[in-house]
Records
---
Amino acid sequence: MDNPAPQHICKSCGNTFTGLYCNACGEKIIEPKDRKFKTVLANVLIATTFSDNKFIKSLRLTIFRPGFLSREYVDGRRVQYMRPLQMFFILNLVYFLFPGILQLFNSSLHTQMHVLPHAKLAQKIVAMKLKTEGMSLIGFELIYNEKSVSLAKLLIVIFILLASLPLSLIFMKRNRFLTDHVALAVELTSFNLAVNALGLTFVFWIINKVLHLGHFSGTYLNDVTLTILFITTNMYFLFRAAITFYGQSGNRLFIKAILGIFGLFLALEVYRFILFFITMWTV
């Protein structure tokens, strides 16, 4: 006669059950093998690297079918894919750890003072800072740019919230809640990290090698170039997401996609404005 399966009391909800998983809340019984270094390391790799097939599948959908992953998530079909926020954290971790990656969400002090809409205000604030600290512009610029790079990677979540606002206004009649627009903004930011930061870093690395071999020099890669790339790639994302996520069609599709890119560009400028003040406050 077979021995009955041992019963366990769930440490999370107190439910009595048999087997390894609680039938009430899904909590797993931790076995000795689960505490082994090899198992822990494997779980970390699955959670934070590309070894999880869900990550690769979700990333591919984000790049080639923008808006699909967010639609599946908000409609409750979540088992087959990685959640948009999880994918964002993985990509942002890579973006944070590798300094050579294109700083799409960052702006140098020169750009803040001479290119962006708040340039004149930035000039006045920097002039006051230099006078108070008794520093030269060249020395301060080096300190500012180094600090700004780190902060830009930490503050991307601000851009997500800002990007969700124009989306909620432009597509407010498409039966979506504000949290749904935030989910799409998370996917859009992941798209930018994957394509415009990680992907283009590799592309420009190859270009730089080719140009270097040809003894060609130029300033083809700067804040203006990155802004153009941002507008172009995000126009593609918004156009596809307007169809997939919002169910938009007809002539309004093009109009709303264009309005969306203006809204995202405005969100990016506000983000850079906030980044400037936070950086100035911390240096």
---
Amino acid sequence: MLQDAKELKLIGVLRGGPKNIDVATARKLGIRLVNTPGKTSRAVAESMIGSLLALTRNIARASRQLQGEGIWSPIYYRYSECGIELEGKTLGLIGFGHIAEKITRMLKGFDLSGILAYDPFRSPEEIVKHGAQPASLPEILEQCDIISLHARLSESSRNLISVKEFNRMKKKPILINTARGGLLDYSALISALKTGQVSGAVLDVFGDEPFSTYQELLRMKNVVATPHIAGGSRETVHRAAEMIAEELKRYALGQPFVNEM
């Protein structure tokens, strides 16, 4: 298609990465590419926090029971079934890009005891500037009550959290993945949930296995799962359109792009 598009000069990719474009061929043909990094960051940050609260305060579980089964259950006032508050908890962010920055700002009012961040591609000064504390991956695994994944998926980060990492988790944390399914070993997660190595999970993404693989996980009472909707908001749509429109204007005026790939 690119080879046949003889007059094509510019491609605008309305997503953070160019997964749907043959970038090598485009560059070989001299076609320039721009994209919209950060367009979903607010939406994903809000969704992560909302889903976390839905788990910690039994909102999703109680809603399913009340709306789905029509049962008004007193079980959620039993101490063993009660939810927990976020105050005093330690949050660990693995990957510290646009989304993690926003989460850090948005959670300031929850009086967490601390927010640790691990990102080998960000300087400690940048992390501190945005309100988090730089930490190593082992420190996050061992010290955090809540661990949230926000790293990019690459060969080096695939199954970043697997059996070895679950074994290092000291505080039986809640694990959150709203980033990429490939960052997490889901079979290891199921085992960790069963053994109590983690106390719960919030999942918006899954791996490449057939979806039936995850049915056991989805039936667990301490799991909140959504079908990859964290980045979906009306504002995200407008934001992406505005970002690409700005790049088109710059192209027409001969100005440098903001986000050229």
